[in-house]
């Protein structure tokens, strides 16, 4: 009996893990707004079609600020902020291509029952100041030049860019 | 004796002023008890002449000791403790943020991983240096919580939950999340909420008037320090923090779309999952945030050189 149960659990687990991998060909996505679909991932590339808000799309690829997509009517590249990952009515049990590729799929939602610690509004309301933890946090404070060295080590260079205005 | 101690503590300046605001009765009681202990043990017994300074020492877990530094520069005369709500100084802002953050840490401590904490401070410090408040003593931390969330408090305090950290795939994504929180601090979003409460509710813009019989009122207005983090900001404040956070990360040399990636991930989390309950309660829906970001960006970033994602440098949690 116990063995049967184990087998059953194993089967369920295996099935759950297998589903997103099988569905890897394309990620489901939904258009967040009307946008132009272009032949290439450039603003001045040829227009090949349009997407409308809430259209279902398949996400095939990502390149810089662009996503390669396919809809029933057209296929090409759109600005990545015009599409959200996941189907419009997604129950969201699926993992993205990135999750699967990085080995995170299957681990993300599985948490052991020990050490679960949420942070609800109630927890925050009843929280008491913790001096010891605060001191620890303060002990990690870095200077601007520490930040600069860290950036240099990673090959990061600052770029001049103005803040964006809010859209109406 | 107790009465005397309470009045001494009341008179001791900035830090105590704030503590009062957050959890009046209890903190006061604790502080008084500690003080009595100290006096009994003869350890840190204050000499009467130096009472205002020493009075900050009795309640270690209520944030007394850091206040020593800020109190030294910002403490008002002992007889009239007040917090300048109308126009708080940088020191007051930091002391306020410390109170809120310390209280958050009381709800969820830092993850015990020194290398992780150092790493988020490195990334955060560099991103914060791209803002107009590079002069703040920015502090970052990852807290032990499976929730997906991040918090900012006045004066340069930023916390991100372990749950959110584990969703990240690159340093650019971390930079985007921290950028959003840094933007809240730069624009003083939380501070403005607190100020509004104070100025609307209590007129003169000082807390000193709240001492005494009005303690319940004060408590109702501010709750504990961390409670502010459980409240929603204006939707526009969130959209603004998204836009600014994205720009700050880009200025720091990271891929522009790290924050958007994270919003995509959050958007895919089941809405009924308790790990996102507070986040979804206090923020606009991820779809809406993405769409608004897209509207603001348009084609304006087409000529920005692609930044770095630095997947490999992202510190891996065990």
What fraction of the residues of chain B are assigned to beta strands by DSSP?
under 5%
Q: Greatest chain-chain interface?
A: A-B, 69 and 104 residues
The tally of helices of chain A reads 5
Strand coverage percent of chain A: 15-25%
What does the overall shape of chain B look like? globular
Major sheet details of chain A = 5 strands, antiparallel
Distance between the termini of chain B: 52 Å
End-to-end Cα distance of chain A: 63 Å
Radius of gyration of chain A: 23 Å
User: Could you give the order of the helices and strands of chain B?
Assistant: HHHHHHEEEHHHHHHHH
Architecture blueprint of SSEs:
The complex is a heterodimer of chains A (168) and B (318).
Chain A: H1 2-22, E1 27-31, E2 35-38, E3 47-51, E4 56-63, E5 66-70, E6 75-79, E7 83-85, H2 97-101, H3 121-125, H4 131-139, H5 144-153
Antiparallel strand pairs in A: 1-4, 1-7, 2-3, 4-5, 5-6
Chain B: H1 2-10, H2 14-41, H3 51-54, H4 64-74, H5 90-107, H6 114-128, E1 139-143, E2 150-153, E3 157-161, H7 162-165, H8 171-186, H9 189-202, H10 215-222, H11 235-251, H12 258-267, H13 277-282, H14 286-297
Parallel strand pairs in B: 1-3
Antiparallel strand pairs in B: 2-3
């Amino acid at each position: 009996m116990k063995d049967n149960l184990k087998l059953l659990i194993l089967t369920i687990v295996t099935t759950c893990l297998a589903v997103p991998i099988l569905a890897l060909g394309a990620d489901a996505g939904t258009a967040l707004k009307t946008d132009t679909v272009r032949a290439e991932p450039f603003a001045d590339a040829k227009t090949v079609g349009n997407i409308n808000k809430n259209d279902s799309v398949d996400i095939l690829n990502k390149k810089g600020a662009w996503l390669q997509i396919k809809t029933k009517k057209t296929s090409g590249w759109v600005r990545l902020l015009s599409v959200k990952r996941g189907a419009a009515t997604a129950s969201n049990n699926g993992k993205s291509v990135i999750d699967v590729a990085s080995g995170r799929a299957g681990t993300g939602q599985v948490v052991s029952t020990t050490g679960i610690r949420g942070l609800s509004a109630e927890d925050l309301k009843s929280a008491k100041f913790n001096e010891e933890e605060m001191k620890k946090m303060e002990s990690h404070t870095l200077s601007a030049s520490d930040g600069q060295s860290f950036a240099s080590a990673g090959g990061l260079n600052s770029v001049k860019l103005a803040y964006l205005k809010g859209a109406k | 004796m107790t009465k005397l101690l309470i009045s001494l503590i009341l008179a001791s300046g900035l830090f105590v002023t704030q503590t009062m605001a957050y959890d009046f009765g209890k903190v006061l009681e604790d502080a008084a008890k500690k003080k009595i202990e100290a006096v009994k043990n003869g350890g840190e017994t204050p000499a009467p002449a130096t009472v205002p300074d020493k009075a900050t020492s009795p309640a270690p877990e209520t944030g007394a000791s850091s206040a020593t530094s800020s109190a030294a520069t910002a403490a008002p005369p002992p007889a009239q403790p007040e917090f300048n709500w109308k126009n708080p100084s940088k020191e007051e802002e930091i002391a306020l943020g410390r109170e809120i953050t310390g209280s958050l840490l009381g709800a969820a401590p830092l993850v015990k991983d020194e290398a992780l904490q150092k790493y988020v401070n490195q990334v955060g410090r560099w991103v914060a240096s791209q803002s107009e408040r590079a002069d703040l003593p920015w502090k970052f931390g990852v807290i032990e919580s499976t929730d997906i969330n991040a918090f900012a408090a006045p004066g340069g305090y930023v916390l991100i939950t372990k749950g959110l950290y584990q969703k990240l795939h690159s340093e650019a994504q971390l930079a985007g999340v921290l950028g959003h929180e840094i933007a809240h601090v730069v624009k003083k979003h939380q501070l403005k909420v607190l100020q509004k409460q104070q100025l609307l509710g209590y007129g003169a813009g000082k807390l000193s008037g709240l001492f005494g019989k009005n303690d319940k009122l004060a408590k109702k207005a501010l709750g504990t320090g961390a409670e502010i983090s459980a409240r929603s900001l204006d939707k526009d404040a969130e959209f603004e923090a998204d836009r600014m956070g994205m720009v700050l990360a880009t200025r720091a040399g990271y891929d522009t779309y790290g924050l958007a990636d994270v919003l995509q991930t959050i958007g895919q989390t089941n809405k009924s999952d308790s790990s996102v309950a507070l986040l979804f309660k206090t923020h606009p829906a991820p779809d809406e945030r993405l769409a608004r970001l897209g509207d603001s960006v348009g084609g304006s970033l087409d000529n920005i050189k692609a930044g770095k994602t630095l997947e490999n440098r992202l510190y891996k949690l065990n």
